[in-house]
Amino acid sequence: MAKKVFIGVGHGGRDSGATGNGFKEKDLNLSIALACRDELVKNGVSVLMSRTKDENDPLTDEIKECNNFNPDLALDIHNNSGGGDGAEVFHYSKGGTSKILAQNILNEIVKIGQNSRGLKIKKNIFGKDYFGFIREIKAPSVIVEGAFIDNVKDIEIINTAEKQKKMGTAIAYGILKTLEPNVKNNTSVISNHPQNNTKTNNLNTTVNKKKISVKYQVWDDVLNCWLPNVTDKTDYAGIFKHDVCAVFASLSEGNIWYKAHIKGGVWLPEVKNRIDFAGVYNKPIDGLMIKTDTGKTVCYRVHLRRKKKWLSWVTGYNANDGNNGYAGFLGQEIEAI
Ligand SMILES: [Zn+2]
Prior knowledge:
The chain is an alpha+beta fold.
């Protein structure tokens, strides 16, 4: 049977929600929600939205509609204001599927270049969940706050119809991942959120000769976000004195596989293309290996944070070959690739 998802669309009609930079939250919420619905429907999910146009839509009605629909998952789409930057997702204070949903959605939002403010809970004076949408809805539910409308930089992640669609689609990927943990959803990335990267050109991962390029980006533990994509040798990915915690890569043609080693930990499972990323947020990596099925060699190297130097180029894919099997030096944080 088809899975069911309820999408609450925050505010509407007389209630504009937050405003700023020429936007009304109710409009952004709707545009994002429609894109989210479209992606879910494309994947065979049955969706009910609290509204599909600009009309009054009180929270009490949303909650009633949702519980009558009896969905597998529910979310309420909002955007933020009040001075801040990035996305946050509220979940049920006792965790469970609501928290998993929140994390999956946040992960996907980060992949489109938005900063993360993390997962959130909020309780009332009775120790219950503060938000009615989370407290009163029977299905696992979350509230997504995509961006700060009143922040002139943060609004850039959703300030066009196309970007709103990307946000909605990202949210849908997080939902799909929660509904079907084994079905990996392709996330086609990436809009560059404004970052202040001051970097000089340097070498990095590349594929020899034939015009196949590698596009990749890394997760930065200090900025707590994905840095912009880098292609081949045009630049390196990473900011010196920051740790790389995860890598996300694809080829212009063919498939790329890669694995990351967590510092003080293990080699993580192999990742293919952008089906997933290699790494764990906020855990530095100290090893990386890459291969492709294009018949071409991938040359790659990493910059060590403490040694302050680039290691030699490598081409292998073998955890047991410390010379050429992977790039990195176990125990030493990687700060650029
Ligand atoms: Zn709102």
